């Protein structure tokens, strides 16, 4: 549904900050302890301020907590072109829709304020509310429990390979979306291949 930053350097640029130190190289990982703090933030266990302080400390002050918060807030770039029309076509086919996302309260506020396509989906299932994240099996189970559909009744799109593989292991029809490509065309092609009404050739 939404285009997001794929690297810390991209997040810096989106926030209007310089890319400092090693992060000009996109293969340089974020400190593992900050990844754990990010995980806890997405589970709703700690606040953005707590996460930002931890990440700043792990980076030895290369970015201060206020800058880390700015990067986090700038992580969502835009709604993919054509998403609203795709949602209309899915709803016209009589199908239930949901967003199932590893996210935080700050990003959820942006969904409401800035990205109308997200608001039009029937269900919004967030890791910070559930307290569990993709690719944990419990997260996929929570979705099934909420929407009332199971296994191959669920068509799932995600841009992260590990999330897609976990969904397939859970029995869903899951497809990876390339965020650098035409995401709506990719999803449409999958729905057409499944002979979904409104997408039949």
Explain the overall architecture:
The chain starts with a strand and ends in an 8-residue tail after the last helix. Helix 10 links the parallel strand 5 and strand 6. Helices cover 49% and strands 11% of the residues. It has 201 residues and is mostly helical. The strands form three sheets. A two-stranded antiparallel ribbon has the order 1-2. The model has no long low-confidence stretch (mean pLDDT 94). The relative contact order is 0.12. The chain has two domains: 75 residues, DNA polymerase, domain 1 (Orthogonal Bundle), CATH 1.10.150; 113 residues, Rossmann fold (3-Layer(aba) Sandwich). It has eleven helices and six strands.
Topology:
Layout: E1 2-4, H1 8-14, H2 32-42, H3 48-58, H4 65-73, E2 76-79, H5 83-92, E3 98-101, H6 105-114, H7 116-120, E4 123-126, H8 127-130, H9 137-147, E5 155-158, H10 161-169, E6 173-176, H11 183-193
Parallel strand pairs: 3-4, 5-6
Antiparallel strand pairs: 1-2
Helix pairs in contact: 2-3, 3-4
Give a brief outline of the structure.
Helices cover 49% and strands 11% of the residues. The protein has 201 residues and is mostly helical. Helix 2 packs antiparallel against helix 3 and helix 3 (48-58) packs across helix 4.
